[in-house]
Amino acid sequence: MSHIILDGRVVREARLPALKEFFGGLAKPPVMTIIQVGDRPDSTAFIRAKSTFAAKVGVTVRHIHLPESITQAELLSVIAENNKASDVHGIIVQLPLPLSLDQETVIEAIDPTKDADGLSAANVKRWLSGHPAALYPATTRGVRELLSHYRIDIFGRKVAIVGRSMLVGKPLAAWALNENATVIVCHSKTPDLAAETKQADIVIVAAGRPGLVSAKHLKSGAVVVDVGINTVQGQKLEEEVGRRLVGDVDFDSASTVASAISPVPGGVGPMTVLALFENLADLIRKAY
Ligand code: NAD
């Protein structure tokens, strides 16, 4: 089937000038603090992609790189300092954290008015309740903007989401419900994944399982959004920063039945980076 490619790089480039103009119009460049604990290569790659984009739109990234041995109390005190710093407008803690740290407590320590990832309880409550100015986590916002750019409306449509994590699946499900889609949430214990996803007009996959979704999971003409980022044995990780990656969708197979499909790399990944800085702009406008 002929299909549209949902190209996140194109959308990101199209929206970059407006962000640059907004940040450039402020009295001084805003600061986004990115806290990294440990040395996971994927986290390092994501932070590099965010920092590169920040430089393009005129945001200063304060990358605080802490050792894996840091205690919870020390990490909370770094967050408290950044909450207090009047020149810092956004704070993100790069996830996942080492298991020795309590992720929930750490996220909760971020001032909700600086929570660029939209994961603190105050922000979660907003996106769960469908508050009109809810600040969605960056990946959800990225998917929203990607579909919106290609004029794919989810209102009244059946949307299947594969994955139920707090970072991706749940906020996607909340957003889709808030937009009046009928939502099917699938996960690792769903007995027959294909039976669920085949009902959907739009399938959003965020499972972290390479090739999980193929043509047999899709109805003809479905829109497919691949959030997955997986390393392939012997290959490198992130194309955008000089490495390679694959998604959760078997692109060649799925594109035989899909009407629109996002590639990996070059689909949701660039949109997530863009959305993080669109969230920052909203925090600065106090529009969250
Ligand atoms: P996670 O491991 O926290 O959650 C994975 C989810 O997938 C779980 O809810 C699990 O139930 C479900 N799942 C696993 N195997 C399944 C199966 N066989 N069938 C159905 N459901 C299954 O991961 P996450 O943080 O939600 O991330 C998911 C993927 O998205 C990863 O590949 C991650 O790297 C990627 N990701 C991409 C971006 C981006 O910007 N593109 C951002 C965040 C995460």
CATH architecture verdict of the largest domain: 3-Layer(aba) Sandwich
Strand order of the largest sheet: 1-9-8-7-5-6
Strand content bin = 5-15%
- Name every ligand kind in the structure: nicotinamide-adenine-dinucleotide
Mean pLDDT: 94
What is the structural class?
alpha/beta
What are the SSEs and their pairings?
Layout: E1 4-5, H1 8-24, E2 31-37, H2 41-57, E3 60-66, H3 72-84, E4 88-93, H4 103-108, H5 121-129, H6 138-149, E5 158-162, H7 169-178, E6 182-186, H8 193-197, E7 202-205, E8 223-226, H9 251-254, E9 260-261, H10 268-285
Parallel strand pairs: 1-9, 2-3, 2-4, 5-6, 5-7, 7-8, 8-9
Helix pairs in contact: 1-10, 2-10, 5-7, 6-7, 6-10
The structure holds nicotinamide-adenine-dinucleotide.
Can you walk through the features of this model?
- The protein is of the alpha/beta class.
- It has 2 domains: 84 residues, Rossmann fold (3-Layer(aba) Sandwich); 132 residues, 3-Layer(aba) Sandwich (Rossmann fold).
- It has 10 helices and 9 strands.
- The strands form 2 sheets. A 6-stranded parallel sheet has the order 1-9-8-7-5-6. Strands 3-2-4 form a 3-stranded parallel sheet, sandwiched between helices.
- It starts with a strand and ends with a helix.
- About 3% of the residues have low confidence.
- Nicotinamide-adenine-dinucleotide (NAD) binds next to α10.
